[in-house]
Write a structure and sequence with these properties.
single chain; 78% helix; elongated
Length: 449
Amino acid sequence: MPPLRTAEQANAVRKFAFAIWNRAVRLAALHKTPPEVCAKIRHKACDFLSLAILSFERTPESVLVTLMKFLGFTGKAWAELNNYELSQSCFTNAMEVWGKLQQLYQAPSDAELGTRRSCLFSILCWRAETAWAMQQKEVTYELFSRAKDLLEFLPSEASYLAAMCFNLGLSHHTQRDFAEAVRWLTECVDVNDRAPQSVARQASALRLLADSYLELGNAEQALNSISLANKSQDHPAGLYILLRVFLLQKNFDQAEHTAEALVKRSDSTLEINMAVPALLITHKRNDCAIRCLQQLCDLYGAEPEKRGAVLIQHLETLVRPPLRDLDAAKALIQSALAGHHDGGLPLDYDVADHLSNVMWDLGANYFQDRDFAHALEWFTWACKLLSLHENHKVCYARCLRIVGQCHLQLSQYPEAATAARQSLALDASLAAHFVLFNALEHTGDGAQA
């Protein structure tokens, strides 16, 4: 556009720029106009206001600050639409306006200087976030550092900057770039220390920082960070990270003490609680893992769904290496069945199904190895679990049939016949008839066979 010739023209263009900017703001607030259209209108407002300003050497300070704000918000809008080329162009122009402000108005009032700095801070943060989205790590950090320097004058902005650092740290942590996560989370902690406003936010940053150090194998720094986090906020997630630190340091006494304290807490999540015994077994602290699982069963006595999840993990822990304590597994199932029938601790369909599958798999392995005595034992336990719910009828019939086959192989023909009849009462399959036929033949009841 050609430069304007008169101040009247400049004023008219400036008013028009303000009008269409306000129009864009209203449209965006109604959420009915596509964001890209609103960004284009904002951009045009910036163009018209720039024309009104650049046509004359001297422009009121307030108008320059307004243009800087417009350019900053427009750059942010383009960044949110992933149009980084236009976003960077707006931010660059905003910084040129900042330079002009510094050149033309070198002795602003305290209020005017505060407004300038606040505007600059926002633009630096938005530029940093855009640079990060463009994977420009060092540019991001440079812009952040400049924004951080302004906190001396803008302490109320510490919250925003800390949140930005936390989000960047969390993103890098999620991407398993733990070195970058440490850098940003360390900055988050430092910014929060300058103007502490949220104990929970600081503790959360410290926990994530400790976890990042753990992933890098730095137990000492992890312990330092998690100790600070736990001092500022008592949280189950902090205890879990502390447990990991102690295990990494092979400080097993402290680890077991921490684990048993953690699983007694009513405010801990099921996810954390179930991770504790699994972690202990990884580090060969099997006895402590079993104690924790037993404690969790007690903790969730009034919550069938959670108790069922723990029972499943407990059973799988007992039947699989490295523990593989089958006697303890039988005792656990016996206790679970007793709780279902007499103790007011019902096993719902899914839990009974999962537990029976574990029993079935054990029995199938013994059956394949022709160890029919042990196969019979585990399939019998599976039958007891499958009998709890009507919806297990078909699987229960099949399991009874296999029990009958085990009895046949062990020459226990009356028992085989009984199991086959029970199976047929549920599902009249040819295979169950065959088991019954074989059992009756061996008992001398040829006519019935």
